[in-house]
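User: I'm preparing a small set of examples for a lab meeting where we compare how different chains pack in three dimensions. I only have the primary sequence for this one, and I'd like the structure in token form so I can line it up with the others. Please keep the answer compact; I'll paste it straight into my notes.
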Amino acid sequence: MPVQAKHTIKKGNTGGHQATVKQLDPGNVLNSRYEIVRRIGGGGMGAVYLAKDRNLGDAPRAVKEMVEAHLDPAQHEKAIGDFKRESLLLTALEHPSIPTIYDYFYDEPLGRFYLVMKFVSGGDLATRLRTAPGGRIDEKTVADWGMQAADVLEYLHSRPKPIIYRDLKPANLMIDGNTGRVMVIDFGIARWVKQEEKGVTAVGTMGYAPPELFGGRVEPRSDVYSLGATLFHLLTGSDPQDNPLLIFDFAKNPRPRQIAPSISSEIEQILMRSVEYKPEDRFASAGAMRDALANHLEKLMAGQVTYGAPSERVGGETVQVQTVYCGFCGGRIAADDIFCAHCGARQPLAGVGSSATLRAARPTAKLVVAGTTELDASFVLQKDNNLLGRTDPHSNVFPEIDLSRFDPETKVSRRHARIWREGETFLVEDLGSVNGTVINDSVRLAPRQPRVLDSGDKLRLGETTLHFLLG
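Assistant: Understood. Below is the structure token output for the 471-residue chain.
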């Protein structure tokens, strides 16, 4: 496999002598040809530099440095041989979304390996996500990016000797500033493997790496999982690394649309299928995922997707959710959407025809306090926005759902949580309370992270338990 440096490298061993590893300075010339301009990236395996190719009129190149770490003399020769062999394999790759590799060499005095490749100027997706409005990327763009990335994976998996990429994540996808095409970069830990090879090193990024990778098994559908995790992050803004072991257990954690209600039901299904725990439950191949994304993108552009499940379970009964068209941009939305998922325009509160009928017939909801002998232990959610907490006249806090009399130990904060309505849907979020908000004894809400409520859900605020019921 490719020679890998430790994630924290202070010194490297180059065949018996120690060499201090430090960043290359601008003006340094590698292999009597590549003049370093500046450092442009890097990670655990070494830095990436922008360089000028002196032999080709100072053409810009990306030079990736891989540092040899703590190898004894016997390992040293093998490492160089492995690097040369796999560099030759990398240079044989021809795909418009894989940067061309022009050169490779080993610098003996520095104890470093170098790959010289096409310079991609557009920035990576992790950077774009950090600067995106609301910390999310729009669905059309993400579907397009995902389709392109899946095509690269299918190409790699279909090679005579299949390549498993193993570390797909937003930081390893870039946009070519000239063509706008997605580019898959950093093949440092990609492996040429047989289908379902066992005993591989568990190398990857927690949150994006599938469960089987850490069990010593890897296959093409492992990359499908990583791509799904990447698209999930881009669409929802929720970083898989924050809860790497549980985030895709949707029985205990919010589904994609519960985090980002503006995305379509169809893309939610694609995301959920791609990150299934068992490889056999995911898309059969990266090509199948690519085709699903391409088909979805076509329907998305034609306004033929839904923004609310075609049918939802409400109080034990199945209720069909009708769709209408936004009066501002014409995009298809759920009849009771307050804001258009396409253009963001607020929809009229009163409509005509079926939309008005649905609004008039929208369900009511209430909270019932558990474990109390009081006769009046329920609250009807009469407003579209309801604060749950404790009354405090001195702070001018008067919550719609005042839990003071059910909270003798004062475990409920004054502004503990809120429940609000969006169309026919009710959502809850914790407001940064001291003792937290827990759903169904399993999911502790992160502050300001909304979750859709289903009839029968149990909410625990501090030590006070409430049952949410739709009327």
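A couple of notes for your slides: Residues 311-360 form one domain. Helices lie at 73-91, 125-131, 139-157, 220-236, 256-259, 265-274, 286-301, 353-360.

User: Perfect, thanks.
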